[in-house]
## 1
Amino acid sequence: MKILENNICRIEYSSTLQEIAEATLKLLEKKIPEYEMYFDIKIEEKIKINYFDDLQEFRNFINNLRNNNSLPEYAKGTYDNDMVNCYIEKESQMERVYTASHELFHILYQKYILEKNNIDRVVWLDEGMAQLMSGEKEKLQDEEEFRKFYINAKKQTKTIPELGSLIHGQQFCNEKYNGYYLSYIAVRYLLEIIGKEELKKIISNAEKIKEYGNKIVIKSFNYYDKKYCNDDSFSDEINYLENLDFDSDSITLKGKK
Ligand SMILES: [Zn+2]
């Protein structure tokens, strides 16, 4: 493994991954101060990143750290032991530049906010915020790009899950919905309706996370349907859900009632 480091992070990487290693160092020089400001923290220790160009080597590394085989099949990045660990395909390495800033968001959120306030991780909020803050969805700042993203994500959603109770693994991403897309839409929706400051308060408040997380997908779909496409294909479900108690299981579209 080769090493690239400066005073804030240290990257260990397979020699074929030089390009992404250099780009990551540059991105994190920008992101780390942003995160410090956002969480109101000062990071004392160096951020450690491990990039593997071999999938099996990556999986062995993680399973070794965990002492088990709990790594999901689809996982290409983790933040075990407060390190960013990734398998990177060398041919398309630059597509993964934002993975490190995404995982780093999870690390800092867990360590400085959740653990300090004794709050359990809520996956949709953590994943949504990581996508929002990491820079990976920068393109979607453009309204028209986001509209296209939303319509596509909705099309792929066959079942509307209750995001508040979802955990990672099969439940979060499957052929019926993509939990990452839905989480991003949910956080983006919150950002639009309550603003940046209130959203910042929510992430460290378990009660509010629960309150805002109730039926978050259906609420955000409702909001963006009105805003973008006048498409009311979920309107039956919305009416139905309006009359339901919270914490119902996931609702399968079409065919329920
Ligand atoms: Zn993530």
## 2
Amino acid sequence: MSSEPTPEHRSDTVLTVNGKPHTLRLDHRRVLLDVLREDLGLTGTKKGCDHGQCGACTVLVDGRRVNGCLLLAVSLDGCDVITVEGLTDGGDGLHPLQQAFLDRDAFQCGYCTPGQICSAVGVLAEAGAGHPSHVTDPAAPSGRPVPLDEAEIRERLSGNLCRCGAYPHIVEAVRDVI
Ligand code: FES
Ligand code: FES
């Protein structure tokens, strides 16, 4: 049986990626990660495991971090996607987290770095909005920003694996921008 999609297995999908709208006719089986890399040429987002285990494909959808390898792109019709290329809003400089990763030497091979940085952007927003993590004190007042100490940062970034073991410097980089 052919795996070529028939017309009824494709849909027009509008994705705003890094502020730019794109209308794409997509096979329903394709995931966001592949559409970003193959259709839009945004290869900053990396494919590690391709099944939700490593976090290398992390991007932001409507401000929340997601694994791009797990999301069917057609399900995101109308959404705003930010990749590592779009963190600075088109500006020339680096996002403070990108600068902190450089300053702290928070990568070795760098393959996990785009996902780590996008995930950390999501962490700052989640903690700022008062979302608790597994290690947040249950007695802490709900809805208040959660202070990001080392345990919080390690727990919240635990879905992003670094095969080189740059974790101590990654934690320092995130702490620099709190
Ligand atoms: S490539 Fe998506 S989680 Fe590993
Ligand atoms: S810097 Fe190599 S996998 Fe993270």
